[in-house]
Write a structure and sequence with these properties.
939 residues, alpha+beta, 4 domains, 42% helix, single chain, seven-stranded mixed beta sheet, Cytochrome Bc1 Complex, Chain A, domain 1, six-stranded mixed beta sheet
Length: 939
């Protein structure tokens, strides 16, 4: 349950709607087994293969297909360390139905993008193959199912291809190397009590990757890729019954070995006493602490288990809220902290505490984390905290129910994978809502507070501190960490006080403004209202979600209008005020007021704009308008928030030069932007001296006290008349001075010209990073932006084929194009990869060779078709999202174009040919404006 709720809360905004009648379920009998979502067809073939199939039309004409193997790196023999992951690579390098590269070529020809739609991952205990395909062509769907079948039992493992792929896998290991991976490698023996997991990291051993016998890899495939350890997860816009018949027909002949190897479940043994480890690295920036309280994993199978999981969610959620409240105090001894209860690894669950510590208060920060956990354990939570968090949890359940037919395929896929691998529950949206609605009111404060006794009493605790090597002298010894943990029960603590006075968001509503003009575009169903105070409102009603409204407000200006003397304050003004609350209501109080509601409003100030981002459901729509109004008229000036934000900003940049990647990016920015004040990373001394609370507040007020020329775009499932009424009251009433317009200013940001080559020596890892940039000027248009992006995509295809597949020199290549008209019309083409230092020159030469080939010959028809299919597929999917419409309407509004101007995308895509890319390459790969940066290890 926890994993699924987390994914949903990230991907979708929460919202509300009238609910259907409850399922007739007796929730008082907690001994009942949880029902699988009845919309999921599930079964098991005679050979043991499990399948899950669910019809879902979000997005239309697409499906998410997964092959899940209940086997990962934990099952490797000593001579196979890394080969579970290597097998995953080989699945893309030849099967019984597709020779090398044919599989990827075929999928790209139908609009599938490598990485985004075609991928895989290997973990300790599972391997998952991922495929997103169109479903409006039965032949394509059939072929896609055959690909899953090939992965399950038809990878060919050519010795030649194994050798060719060794370099790619080695480069993946190289690309992942760094301070984070080094510290993780040191921590895992501690947190797993030296279990087998510590010696079976999925990326494996470089020696095995480069030198293993062919037979070792084939042996892993034979032993563990078998139907009794497999599941198919199919979710999408197709006929589920027909798909089930296809699964039975196609996969029933997969055979289980006559003497199948036992699928051992390796355990993490329970420690008899806590352990601690301080880990330092010269290239890390931050100091962090993590506490893991571990106990045996308990499956969630019954109603009672589901309630237990709910109690744990309430407990850990309220503790996170307390941590969040603490971090908004400038005197807090840590920068951020969090807590949670859930799956850990192997056979263990954990209650965890994590914090990002202040450099000069490491010990105090660690003690404060334990103190807050102990406070919750000793005194429990308050009734008001619990009621608010119950409302939040129930509203999250409403999200599932209300938007059941609009939840993306990938959300359901991930839940069903977890059901197979961890036996996590997959209940219907109706069941979840009804269970919460019935059970939440019966949950007492004592039940929630009792969760602490289950978790914090364990002796199996691991404490990990990660810190910069140069701070070693400031760090507590491991014995001290254990004493902090041990002495928690003896701390002198007071109960938490829930500071939630009787506050109201807006006591007096503003007087409505005046509507002066209305226009309507019937081609895209967009209405525009102009108000007397200079505010414009544009509305696009949709049914892409059932009860969701998204808003984007904007006006030119931003930090560009601030003088250099207050630049640091101006660039942070939007962030600080958005964290400070409104109308004398602190941000914490505002969060408490809105808990259980689906409403969010955030003001921003970027380089060239003032912005408002907001969302709500229909029920909380007026509250959203009120918050928007207050961020203009009554922003708070909060010294506590300012101090906390300043400390976090200093922490972000402190020690950045010790991190090779951060330092490399700094050199690139300084070089490319002529070391312009506003285009390079901030310095700690600069933040300390120049970030000023009065300047922050005054600049924000200056930009938002006059709403003239602000435009708001609304998209979602709403009644336009209601938006009109609320806009008239809350937006048309915003203060404005019609004599003062707003525009951004040219602050002199200019990209460097000419040829530049720089080598940076930084870091201890045996790896190089290469950044190749082409820049120049152009007459900006959305069409040219599109051309740059598509040129980048086609070059990425070619470089992936050459640098990765043919040369084995990289794990991946990033190619990106960008253009804008601010502060002048300019573009950038960026090519990046990580490789062995000795391979830098040969790989760069291949990049130049591929660019020259496009300039001379254009692009093969095969690659043209790949790009066109992907572009058509993506555009037709994006057309069903409110955010896409808002972006396109904003673009058209700012450029003075018709709102429907982008709807000729089919004709535009159809016109793409080889010359399209040839012409683009000739223009945008301008060798006279070329910059090259190479990061090499320290000499």
């Amino acid at each position: 349950m926890t994993r699924l709720l987390t994914i949903i809360s990230i991907v979708l905004l929460t919202f509300n709607a009238p609910l259907q009648a409850q399922e007739k379920t007796n929730f008082t009998n907690l001994k009942q087994q949880l029902p699988l979502d009845p919309s999921v067809i599930t079964g098991k073939l005679e050979n043991g293969l499990t399948y899950y199939i669910k019809e879902n039309s979000r997005p239309q004409d697409k499906a998410e297909l997964r092959l899940v193997i209940n086997a990962g790196s934990i099952l490797e023999d000593e001579d196979q360390r890394g080969l579970a992951h290597f097998v995953e690579h080989m699945a893309f390098n030849g099967t019984t139905s597709f020779q090398k590269n044919e599989l990827i070529d075929y999928l790209q020809s139908i609009g599938v993008e490598f990485g985004a739609d075609l991928n895989a991952h290997t973990g300790f205990d599972e391997t998952v193959y991922k495929l997103t395909v169109p479903t409006d062509d039965q032949e394509i769907f059939d072929t896609s199912m055959q690909i899953l079948k090939d992965w399950a039992g038809g990878i060919t493992f050519s010795n030649e291809e194994i050798d060719n792929e060794r370099g790619v896998v080695a480069e993946e290991l190289r690309a992942r190397s760094g301070a984070g991976s080094r510290m993780y490698d040191e921590s895992i023996p501690v947190i797993t009590n030296n279990a087998r997991y510590a010696s079976r990291l999925p990326i494996g051993s470089l020696d095995v990757i480069l030198n293993s016998d062919y037979e070792a890899m084939k042996r892993f495939y034979r032993d563990w890729y078998r139907p009794d350890l497999m599941a198919l997860v199919l979710v999408g816009d197709f006929d589920a019954k027909k798909a089930e018949a296809q699964v039975k027909s196609l996969f029933s002949d997969l055979e289980v070995p006559q003497r199948p190897k036992e699928r051992t479940v390796y355990k993490i043994e329970t420690a008899n006493k806590p352990v601690a480890k301080v880990i330092t690295d010269k290239e890390t920036q931050n100091t962090t602490v993590a506490f893991y309280y571990k106990k045996e994993h308990e499956k969630t199978l019954s109603f009672e288990d589901y309630k237990t999981s709910l109690l744990e969610s309430l407990y850990s959620g309220m503790l996170r809220e307390r941590f969040n409240e603490l971090t908004q105090d400038k005197d807090a001894p840590f920068l951020s902290a969090s807590a949670g209860i859930g799956f850990f690894l192997g056979n263990k669950d954990s209650y965890f505490l994590r914090a990002n510590l202040k450099e000069d208060q490491v010990l105090k920060g660690i003690e404060a984390v334990i103190a807050e956990s102990e406070r919750a354990k000793r005194f429990g939570f308050t009734e008001t905290e619990l009621e608010r968090y119950k409302a939040k949890v129930l509203q999250n359940a409403v999200l599932f129910k209300t938007e059941a037919d609009k939840i993306p395929n990938r959300i359901y896929v991930e839940a069903l994978i977890d059901n197979f691998t961890f036996e996590d529950p997959v209940v219907s949206e109706d069941f979840r809502y009804n269970f919460y609605k019935e059970i939440l009111p019966t949950i007492s404060l004592n039940e929630v507070n009792a969760v602490a006794q289950t978790w914090v009493a364990t002796s199996d605790v691991a404490i990990i501190v990660n810190a910069p090597e140069q701070d070693l002298a400031k760090l507590p010894e491991e014995a001290k960490l254990l004493n902090i943990l041990k002495n928690g029960e003896g701390l002198n603590l007071k109960p938490y006080v829930d500071d939630m006075a009787n506050v109201a968001l807006m006591k007096d509503k503003p007087q409505p403004g005046k509507l002066t003009a209305t226009s309507y575009n019937d081609k895209v169903d967009v209405t525009t209202w102009e108000f007397a105070n200079g505010v414009t409102v544009i509305v696009k009603p949709t049914t892409f979600q059932n009860d969701m409204i998204a808003v984007r407000g904007f006006r030119p200006g931003g930090s560009s209008v601030a003088p250099d003397s207050i630049y640091v304050s101006a660039r942070e003004a939007g962030r600080i005020v958005s964290e400070s609350g409104v109308n004398s209501i602190s941000n914490i109080q505002l969060q408490k007021l809105n808990m259980g509601r689906d409403v969010k409003v955030t003001p921003y100030i970027n380089y060239y704009d003032e912005l408002i981002s907001a969302s709500s459901n229909r029920e909380d729509l007026e509250r959203m308008f009120q918050m928007i109004h207050l961020y203009f008229t009554a922003p708070n000036k909060d010294a506590n928030i300012f101090g906390s934000h300043k400390e976090q900003l200093i922490s972000l940049y402190k020690g950045a030069d010790d991190n090779p990647g951060s330092y490399f990016e700094k050199v690139i920015a300084q070089t490319m932007m002529n070391n312009h004040l506003r285009a390079v990373p901030l310095e700690v001394d600069q933040i300390e001296a120049e970030l000023n609370i009065d300047e922050v507040y005054d600049f924000y007020k200056e930009r938002f006290s006059n709403a003239n020329e602000f435009t708001f775009i609304f998209a979602g499932n709403f009644d336009p008349d209601q938006i009109k009424e609320l806009s008239t009251q809350y937006l048309a009433s915003l203060p404005s001075n019609l004599d003062e317009g707003s525009n951004w200013e040219d602050i002199g940001l200019r990209r460097v010209t000419g040829k530049i080559k720089k080598t940076v020596n930084k870091g201890i890892d045996d790896k190089a990073q290469v950044a190749m940039r082409y820049t120049g000027t152009l007459d900006y248009s959305p069409e040219k932006l599109k051309k740059l992006n598509l040129l980048a995509k086609v070059l990425k295809i070619r470089l992936t084929e050459e640098l990765r597949e043919e040369m084995g020199g990289v794990y991946g290549v990033r190619v990106s194009g960008f253009t804008t008209d601010r502060p002048y019309d300019w573009y950038r083409m960026d090519i990046r990869f990580t490789c062995a230092p000795e391979n830098v020159e040969v790989l760069k030469d291949k990049v130049f060779e591929e660019i020259a080939a496009i300039k001379k010959n254009g692009v093969s028809q095969e690659n043209v078709d790949k790009i066109k299919e992907a572009e058509l597929s993506n555009t037709e999917e994006f057309l069903n999202y409110d955010s896409f419409w808002i972006a396109k309407i904003k673009e058209a509004y700012e450029l003075g174009r018709d709102y429907d101007s982008f709807l000729n995308y089919k004709e535009d895509i159809s016109a793409i040919d080889s010359d399209y890319f040839k012409d683009a390459a000739m223009i945008y790969f301008d060798e006279t404006n070329y910059a090259e940066f190479v990061l090499l290890p320290e000499e």
